[in-house]
Design brief:
InterPro entries: Glutathione-S-Trfase_C-like, Glutathione-S-Trfase_C_sf, Glutathione_S-Trfase, Glutathione_S-Trfase_N, GST_C, Thioredoxin-like_sf
Order of helices and strands: EHEHEEHHHHHH
CATH architecture of the largest domain: Up-down Bundle
Radius of gyration: 18 Å
Structural class: alpha+beta
CATH topology of the largest domain: Glutathione S-transferase Yfyf (Class Pi), Chain A, domain 2
Shape: globular
Enzyme class: transferase
Strand order of the largest sheet: 2-1-3-4
Oligomer: single chain
EC number: 2.5.1.18
Largest sheet: 4 strands, mixed
Pfam family, one: GST_C
Bound molecules: glutathione
Number of helices: 8
Strand content: 5-15%
GO molecular function, one term: glutathione transferase activity
């Protein structure tokens, strides 16, 4: 089986969700690094693969799939040895799907709308509402966590997707375990995965460092002008 080609960046939470899924499935990727700050994703060659110019994207022997949630479902459906990560039972699967949409529409969306103005458009301040929305997202996930994992008591795609966004949020706005105890315990549980640090934690910290450096740079530029 040829390795799946993955266009991604360590900084990218959805990119890390795909890498985490690869590790959980025992899949190797041929990684094609995309530098978002340098605009690699806006080049014609990449736009031909994904007109929406987002990473991650996979090329599986000519089959192109983009959007991390679509990718991880594709990989688990095509390559998993069993249905543990993406349970076949229709009710359980609907719960996993709900969490994937929650990541897409709430967790990653709120993080993205917070970070993008600073990373790409020179913003020096953030409206308080955007920060409040990140904390509300913590609360929503904390309240969702009634078991050890997002769906029941075993790891599924739901966890791998959400933890990529949450780790990035946590590296910028640390999760207060007193306020969000179930969320903090869930992050600690996932952090025990043998591949977690290299595949998720390091990239989340790198993203937080870039965010801090950009904020400082934007503020210095604004002072000069
Ligand atoms: N829903 C998409 C979001 C992907 C996304 O927005 N990726 C960001 C990097 S973290 C990106 O490629 N941004 C560049 C752009 O939108 O032009 C997914 O889950 O893959």
């Amino acid at each position: 089986m040829p390795n799946v080609k993955l266009y991604t960046a360590k900084l990218s939470p959805p990119g890390r969700a795909v890498e985490l899924t690869g590790k959980a499935l025992g899949l190797e990727f041929d990684i094609s690094p995309i530098n978002l700050i340098a605009g690699d994703h806006l080049k014609e060659e990449f736009r031909k693969l994904n007109p929406q110019h987002t990473i991650p994207l996979i090329d599986d022997d000519g089959t192109i799939v983009y959007d991390s949630h679509a990718i991880i479902v594709y990989l688990a459906t095509k390559y998993a040895k069993d249905d543990a990560l993406y349970p076949a039972d229709v009710v359980t699967r609907s719960k996993v799907n709900a969490a994937l949409h929650f990541d897409s529409g709430v967790l990653f969306a709120r993080l993205r709308f917070y970070l993008e103005p600073i990373l790409y458009y020179g913003a020096t301040e953030t409206p308080q509402e955007k920060i409040d929305n990140l904390y509300r997202a913590y609360e929503l996930l904390n309240d969702t966590l009634v078991d050890d994992y997002i769906v029941g008591n075993r790891l599924t795609l739901a966890d791998l997707s959400c933890v990529a966004s949450i780790a990035s949020m946590h590296a910028i706005f640390p999760i207060d375990a007193g306020k969000y105890p179930k969320l903090a315990a869930w992050v600690e549980r996932l952090a025990k995965l043998p591949y977690y640090k290299a595949t998720n934690q390091d990239g989340a910290e790198e993203l937080a460092q870039l965010y801090r450096a950009k904020l400082e740079e934007n503020r210095a530029k604004a002072k000069q002008s």
